[in-house]
Design a protein that fits this description.
CATH class: Alpha Beta
Low-confidence stretches: 127-131, 134-141
Structural class: alpha/beta
CATH topology: Transcription Regulator spoIIAA
Number of helices: 3
Order of helices and strands: EEEHEHEHEE
Helix content: 25-40%
Number of domains: 1
Strand order of the largest sheet: 1-2-3-4-5-6-7
Mean pLDDT: 86
Shape: globular
Distance between the termini: 33 Å
Number of strands: 7
CATH superfamily: STAS domain
Length: about 140
Amino acid sequence: MQEKTIVSTKNTPEISLNPDGIIKISGRSMNGKISELEEQIENWIDEYIINPPEMTYVHINLEYFDEINLKIYYSLLKKIESIKYLDKKYIINWYYEEDDEDILEKGEKISIILDIPFTFIMIDNSGLDACNLPVMNSRII
């Protein structure tokens, strides 16, 4: 299985799918444009969940996404959650800016609807961590 990176555009997020257990989604997801990438993402995830590593980390750092794209995120996260049946573990980190209640609430909604625990991480734009993501303050909901 190979790593897959989808470069961001002004309307689609950057998506990094690493078979070593790191999945990153960051940027903007608008106007249903991510649906054009849905098949590529679904195919990669379907192959990934057959034999995932012991731990999978999902980092979601969206500055904006619309309701049209929710089903893609639901599907991706439900598939990742299914690795627990293989005795594998996962952590879903949902990043949001301190003053962005909308993104935080959307993450909380997804977590509740799917009944999947998320770690909600407030971004502190003062630097980058080892995963090349903003330094943050976290809380689990």
